[in-house]
Every structure is written in structure tokens, then in C-alpha cells.
Design brief:
heterodimer; A: 5-stranded parallel sheet; 7 strands; 40% helix; B: alpha/beta; Rossmann fold; 7-stranded mixed sheet; 37% helix
Chain lengths: 284, 305
């Protein structure tokens, strides 16, 4: 296929582990250097992003405007620092550009801008609850225009507070939009507390089933499970698919894991060093 | 106007494969013909306007030309952020249509009045706002919305409005349409309420008073040139007629331009609504009389100048 990038299918899941580790490092480094928050949220979805871009999405970074490319929308826009590292690493743009992250006049800040300034960004998000409905519109465009591309939206569990998520869920179900895939980075936290306590999210899986979606449940840090789930998304003929991915906020750094302080905190020098030591040890 | 919209959008859909119509659970039978012509391009998106607007934004940036249609408050204030971010910031090729604007649905109460839609939408950068007064202007606006590629909002009335002017769609865009020319007094306004102005023209002629009537077809971005030319063409008194709050509508807009450009009118009089919720209801005509934006009030004011 013209838009699939090279080596996509040959890369092993073990190699994905190394890529994710490397990108965790650069995300943490950027957060520390440029004082970019939402580190916990970035680390919880890093493995999902890596899987999507290296194994799943039919997008050629060298031809990222191809009409028939798959569309990926980071509906949880505050995960942008992780997404930018992914896009740079896989070749949507020169990684050198990421050095301007957080500087005045840079395009690289806390949320994805509208398409056009950063290659690979399909939609401006940051206000929650917009990305899934936009992906739904794009998925319908795919059908109307006969292009057969798929649309993916990565949501946070906190984002499921937004009514528009459930509006989109109902309509996608009634329209049988089987080329739409939502992935929920279910890290059990939102900005100020446990997502279950704030908006009574549970039972999240049952909710999506009852809304008429093919609903899959995986460990969002397990590439094997992600692979199995994404294979199933392609077999759905009648339903949109949601992958509820259980994740750990701050995944990969022991003192950040499941600690919601890292929603807003950025690492100081010694914390950065400790995080790097840990990641280096994990790599051995 | 709404039947004109249904007809025009159906004709467009016949010609263009990229036209999509999204409706918020209204106008179902009205779009039967569209559904016949383009069954896979009509979506009843249910009573979920915010989702509908973001969906349209997603379609518009994927090379479709979606039209989003429902009652004005629900297609504007209900989903303001989805318009601001999804539609306008993305420069998505979406045309939003608000039907039953102003006091068209007067007796349905403040939930269905739209006296603030231009006030909120005019704050959105790059959104083209069209305010046609009749079906002829509406057809022109629909064509413009296709030509301009940009995000658009078209504010329309209900059904049965008479055409107010001889209007020949021009190849070049026209932002302000002259319905009549003459005299030192000009009524400038937009939307179906301009019929109140048109209806007093002959009565005024009988007492040797001529008036100019200008229909603002494009509210945003506003063409200041015509306004500047008015003083040069002998217009001394301006009456700003609108079925909208004066404080955030055309009167507000014109006041800003007059100050900025230092235009010299002897008087500028708002004929719009005060920003108050309306509790005691009635038919649209009754409400226009009650709030003194009807033809008789206009006539009496003009005679007094």
C-alpha cells in the first residue's frame, strides 16, 4: 500500500519496548527542561501511541497528507508532549525541531494545534470531548468518499466526563461506523482526583457495551494484548470499536506511578536524574 | 426561507458529491428530496448538537462540505465552543445554518428566541456570518458559502417570507444590498425584519419622504466601505433595524465603526431589542409591535426626524 511506512510489520514487539523507553526519556526530559506539565498523562499513553504509530496506523510520515491515510486524533490533547516525541521519532519532522519545545514562538507547546503547522497533527485538541466527535465525522467522510481509511481517537478516562463523548458513542453506534476506533487511556485519575470518585465512571466497559460498541479490554502497557485488540477492530462489520486500555498514570517511573501529583508537576534536576537512572536500568 | 434552503441544498447535492447535510432531529420531511438525491449524505444526528458540530468539523477538514441545520439557539449558543474550535479554528469547510432566528419562534419562549447569536458568533475570528433578508439573498449566501471555502454561518427566518428586493446574484460578492435608494434617512438592517422597513416606503413617499433601505447580507467580516460612503451620499440619519439585541448586534457593530472611522451622522437610532429575557409571549408580529421594531414605530420615528 502506498501509504504504509517501511518496516511496519517487521518490527518486533520487543523493539517497541525500546522505542517506548527512549520516548519516555525524551518526554520526561522535555517536561523538566521546558516545564511542560501532564507528564503522568503522557507516560500512561506512551505505549499505546508507540503501538499505533509503529504497528497499526496506515500513515506514511513522508506522505502525511495522502487522502487515504488513517486519521489519528489525540482527543486527550494534553498528551501532546508524548505524541510530538512519537511523531518526531518516526519521521514526520526533523527531531531537531523539538528543541524549540516550550519556547516562545514555537509551535510545540502543551496541546496540538490545528493541522498545518506540525506534520502529523490531524486536529486541535485540548478542550476535551471534541476529538471523538471529529473522528466520527472523519470516519463518515471515509465512507462517503469511498477511501476506506480508519479513524482512531485516543481518549482519557477523565474525558469521558464530557457529554459529547456519549453523544458521539450513540450516533456512531446507530450509524454502524465500523471504521472508527476509540482507545481509552484508563489510568483511573483525572486532574484533581480519582476518575471513579469524581464522575462515577464504572462500570466503564459495560457502559460502552451498552452503547452498542465492540468493547475490548486490555492492559495498555502490554504490546501483545494491544496487538490482539487491534486485530479484532478490523473484523467488526457493524460496530465501532472501543479499546479500554488499563494503564498506570506516570508509568515507567516508580515515584510517578499512580501518583496524581505528576498531573501538573514537572521534574526538577534530581528527579530527572533519578527517572533516567531507573529507565536505564530497565533497559538492561 | 427554510423551504428555499431545502431546495437549494438539494440542488447543490445533485451537482456536488461533497455536499453533506446534518440535521439535529428537525426538518425531517423537508429534506425528503435531499434524502432521495443523496441518501448516504444526509445524517439525522439526533438531539446532540455539540457532537453534530464537531462531526461536521471533522467532515469539513476531510474534504466534504457539510451543512449543519437546526433551530438557531441550538446551532449557535448550544455548541459555541465546537464552532469556535472545531469549525472556525480548523478553518473547516462547514456551513452552519440557524433557522427560526430572532423572534421567528416568539411564542416558543426564550429557549427558542435567538437574539444573541450574532453577539456571540461575531467574536469568533474568521467565521463568515451571513444574514439574508429573503429567499433570493439566501440562495446567494449559500452559493457564497461554497465559493469562499471558509467556515460560515447563515442566519435565516422561518417560512413564507416575501422577497424584498430585485436581486440579481452577481459574480462578485456583495456584502450590503440596496433595497431602495433615496433621501437623507437610511434604514440599515438584516434578516426578514427588513420587511417592516420595506412596507412603509410607499406611505412615506405619499408625504414626500424618501428613504434608503440597506440589507446587510454579510455581517462578518463587515464591509465598512458602504457605511463610509453613506455620509458622502447625503445620508444624515441612520436607523439600525434588527431582530436581535442592539447591544451585541448590528447597532453595536456600526457604533464601533462610526467611532473608529470618525463617521459623521447626525443621528444613529437603534431599532432592536434590549438585552432582556422576554417573559410575556405572543406572535412574532405582536412582539415586534410590543418592542417597537415594527413598521408603525419606524414610520412614526421617521416622520419625527
Amino acid at each position: 500500500m502506498s501509504t504504509s511506512h517501511q518496516n511496519k510489520h517487521s518490527i518486533t514487539l520487543d523493539e517497541l519496548e525500546n522505542i517506548a523507553l527512549k520516548l519516555r526519556k525524551s518526554t520526561i526530559f522535555t517536561s523538566s527542561k521546558a516545564k511542560i506539565p501532564h507528564l503522568g498523562s503522557c507516560l500512561s499513553c506512551m505505549d499505546i501511541l508507540v503501538y499505533l504509530y509503529w504497528k497499526e496506523l496506515n500513515i506514511n510520515p513522508q506522505n502525511f497528507r495522502a487522502h487515504d491515510r488513517d486519521r489519528f486524533i489525540l482527543s486527550k490533547g494534553h498528551g501532546a508532549p508524548a505524541l510530538y516525541q512519537v511523531l518526531g521519532e518516526i519521521g514526520f519532522f526533523d527531531k531537531e525541531l523539538l528543541k524549540s519545545f516550550g519556547e516562545n514562538d514555537s509551535f510545540f507547546h502543551e496541546h496540538p494545534p490545528k493541522p498545518g503547522s506540525i506534520p502529523g497533527i490531524e486536529a486541535a485538541t485540548g478542550s476535551l470531548g471534541h476529538g471523538l466527535p471529529m473522528a466520527l465525522g472523519m470516519a463518515l467522510s471515509s465512507k462517503i468518499r469511498g477511501l476506506n481509511f480508519k479513524c482512531y481517537a485516543l481518549l482519557s478516562d477523565g474525558e469521558c466526563n464530557e457529554g459529547t463523548i456519549w453523544e458521539a458513542a450513540m450516533l456512531a453506534s446507530s450509524l454502524r461506523v465500523n471504521n472508527l476506533v476509540a482507545i481509552i487511556d484508563f489510568n483511573k485519575w483525572q486532574a484533581t482526583g480519582r476518575s471513579q470518585e469524581i464522575m462515577s465512571l464504572d462500570p466503564l466497559v459495560d457502559k460502552w457495551i451498552s452503547f452498542g460498541w465492540q468493547t475490548l479490554e486490555v492492559d495498555g502497557h502490554n504490546f501483545n494484548q494491544l496487538e490482539q485488540a487491534f486485530i479484532k477492530t478490523k473484523k467488526s462489520t457493524q460496530k465501532p470499536t472501543v479499546i479500554v486500555a488499563h494503564t498506570i498514570k506516570g508509568k515507567g517511573i516508580s515515584f510517578m506511578e499512580d501518583n496524581n501529583n505528576w498531573h501538573y508537576r514537572t521534574p526538577n534536576e534530581s528527579e530527572l536524574e533519578a527517572a533516567f537512572t531507573e529507565l536505564n536500568n530497565n533497559a538492561l | 426561507m427554510r423551504n428555499t434552503f431545502a431546495k437549494a441544498i438539494t440542488n447543490l447535492a445533485k451537482k456536488r458529491e461533497d455536499i453533506v447535510l446534518l440535521s439535529g432531529d428537525i426538518g425531517n420531511r423537508m429534506f425528503d428530496e435531499f434524502k432521495k438525491v443523496a441518501p448516504n449524505r444526509f445524517f439525522n444526528c439526533g438531539i446532540a448538537e455539540a457532537n453534530m458540530m464537531s462531526m461536521a468539523a471533522g467532515m469539513g477538514i476531510s474534504n466534504l462540505r457539510p451543512f449543519v441545520y437546526t433551530i438557531t439557539p441550538f446551532t449557535t449558543s448550544r455548541c459555541f465552543e465546537q464552532i469556535k474550535i472545531g469549525v472556525a479554528y480548523h478553518q473547516s469547510k462547514v456551513t452552519i445554518v440557524g433557522t427560526g432566528s430572532g423572534l421567528s419562534y416568539a411564542e416558543l419562549g426564550p429557549t427558542h428566541h435567538s437574539l444573541d447569536d450574532l453577539g456571540i458568533l461575531r467574536t469568533i475570528p474568521s467565521l463568515n456570518i451571513y444574514t439574508p433578508c429573503d429567499s433570493q439573498e439566501l440562495e446567494y449566501c449559500i452559493n457564497q458559502s461554497i465559493l469562499n471555502n471558509g467556515p460560515n454561518y447563515i442566519r435565516i427566518g422561518k417560512k413564507g417570507e416575501k422577497n424584498l428586493s430585485e436581486f440579481e446574484p452577481l459574480s462578485s460578492p456583495i456584502d450590503i444590498n440596496w433595497i431602495s435608494r433615496g433621501g437623507e434617512i437610511a434604514i440599515i438592517g438584516y434578516g426578514p425584519i427588513l420587511s417592516e422597513a420595506a412596507s412603509i416606503k410607499n406611505d412615506l413617499k405619499k408625504i414626500n419622504k424618501e428613504i434608503s433601505i440597506l440589507s446587510v447580507i454579510k455581517f462578518s467580516p463587515f464591509d465598512t466601505k458602504v457605511l463610509k460612503s453613506l455620509t458622502k451620499n447625503g445620508i444624515k440619519h441612520l436607523i439600525v433595524l434588527e431582530e436581535h439585541y442592539s447591544s451585541s448586534g448590528l447597532f453595536s457593530k456600526i457604533s464601533e465603526i462610526v467611532l473608529k472611522e470618525n463617521l459623521k451622522f447626525e443621528s444613529i437610532k437603534p431599532f432592536g431589542l434590549e438585552d432582556k429575557f422576554i417573559n410575556r409571549l405572543g406572535k412574532q408580529n405582536y412582539m415586534r409591535e410590543k418592542f417597537k421594531i415594527d413598521s408603525r414605530s419606524l414610520y412614526n420615528y421617521i416622520v419625527s426626524i
